[in-house]
Design goal:
Structural class: alpha+beta
CATH architecture of the largest domain: Orthogonal Bundle
Radius of gyration: 19 Å
Helix content: 40-55%
Largest sheet: 3 strands, antiparallel
Strand order of the largest sheet: 1-3-2
CATH topology of the largest domain: Arc Repressor Mutant, subunit A
CATH class of the largest domain: Mainly Alpha
CATH superfamily of the largest domain: Winged helix-like DNA-binding domain superfamily/Winged helix DNA-binding domain
Length: 136
C-alpha cells in the first residue's frame, strides 16, 4: 500500500476550520477561526495553507474584492469522511478507494469482540440502506 500523505496537526486544524465553515474562506477568515494558541504567528498559518495547496487537500475556490485588492478563497478538496478513511488507509494518496484496507477495517469492526451490538446494528443498517439506494 502506498505511504499516506504526512499531515501536520496545523494542517488538520486548517482543514477542520474549512469543513466546519461549509463554504470557501479567505486566509484572514481561516486565521480568525483557528484557536490562537495553534499558530505562533500569521506566517505559520499561511505556510499551513500553502502546504495543503501543494498536497491538493485544499484548492483556491474563488476571489473576492476587498478595499485594497483581492483575496483568494479556499475550500477542501476532500470531505472529512474521506480524510478520516485516508488516515486509516481506506483511500490511498490519490484518494482512490483501497478495497483491501476497507475490507480490513470492516472486518476489524465486525469481528472485534468488544464491539457493542449498537455498532454492529448501525453497520448493518448502513449496508441495507446503501443496497436499497443502489437498486433504485
Amino acid at each position: 500500500m502506498p505511504k499516506r500523505k504526512e499531515i501536520s496537526s496545523g494542517e488538520i486544524c486548517v482543514l477542520e476550520t474549512l469543513w466546519k465553515a461549509g463554504k470557501p474562506l479567505s486566509q484572514p477568515e481561516i486565521l480568525e477561526q483557528i484557536p490562537h494558541d495553534m499558530f505562533n504567528n500569521r506566517t505559520t498559518a499561511y505556510s499551513m495553507i500553502n502546504k495543503l495547496l501543494k498536497k491538493n487537500l485544499i484548492k483556491m475556490d474563488g476571489v473576492v474584492q476587498v478595499t485594497k485588492g483581492f483575496m483568494r478563497l479556499f475550500s477542501p478538496t476532500i470531505t472529512k469522511r474521506q480524510f478520516t478513511l485516508h488516515t486509516y488507509g481506506v483511500y490511498n494518496n490519490d484518494f482512490k478507494y483501497n478495497l483491501q484496507a476497507a475490507t480490513d477495517l470492516a472486518s476489524y469492526l465486525c469481528y472485534d469482540e468488544n464491539a457493542p451490538d449498537v455498532l454492529l446494528d448501525t453497520i448493518e443498517a448502513m449496508i441495507a440502506k446503501r443496497r436499497k439506494e443502489k437498486k433504485q
